[in-house]
From TrEMBL:
Gene3D superfamilies listed in its UniProt record: Aldolase class I
Name this polypeptide is given: Uncharacterized protein
Lineage, broadest ranks: Eukaryota, Metazoa, Ecdysozoa, Arthropoda, Hexapoda
Family of this protein: Belongs to the BtpA family.
PANTHER family per record: SGC REGION PROTEIN SGCQ-RELATED, ZGC:162297
InterPro entries per UniProt: Aldolase_TIM (IPR013785), BtpA (IPR005137), RibuloseP-bd_barrel (IPR011060)
Amino acid sequence: MLKFKRLFPNKCSIIGMIHAGALPGTPLYGGSIESIVDNACIETEILIKHQVDGIIVENMHDVPYVQSKHFGPEIVATITKVCERVRTIVPTSIPCGIQILAGGNREAVAVAKVTNFNFIRSEGFVFSHIADEGIMDADAGLLLRYRKAIDAENVLIFTDIKKKHSSHTITSDVSLVETAHAAEFFCSDGVILTGTATGKPANIKELQDLKHNCNLPVIVGSGVTCDNVTEYFMADALIIGSHFKNNGNWMECVSPERVKKFMQIVKAARGWCNFSYGDFSFSG
């Protein structure tokens, strides 16, 4: 928890998502790497202007996704260029992270290492599951050994558990809390709770269970909006993607008005927590 709080000292930190445009070689690639980089930078500037607590870059437009063993070198090369440019815009006091779909966890650690990013979002850390892309094997042991081997232990690894867009029938006898305990035992730096799909709200009861029974930071990774954000304020951080976009659609551009409104609600809620709890303030 201490490492997390060094990066995210605020109560319920807000991590804004940058959905990088479709990368070279993927079906939706538009033919311009510079356009991908420039758009990512424009959206980063909007998020920073409205004082989000962190940034995460993701290649969500690379649909349909393939597992990391099928990545071409152009994927890692291009996302590295995006992250390098994003990092030049973001103040060093604001942490940056990366997720490379699908299951590109080692690649993400490598990119984070060379671009001075602070964390990655990892799929399939503990307990294999079946995703859109096929069977995703658990990789905690290999991933942490790789992080050690390249001297990247300052890159934190936040891990999805019972993640969205996936079937967990094989591990249905392993509860969410047990999965979180396994992630903790395997040295995760934080767990991510999601709904069933992109933009779908996470279950409040599950969030409460994790906060009461897990010693790791708990991050909510989908479905948070202006209308429900205060319900998720017990989380240590929230990753906001779809709701920051025009019409709440992840495929559209970041909306300055939506980001501004959301962050105003968050700041007001933080102030209410400070006032209500006095010496037991939730602020950083």
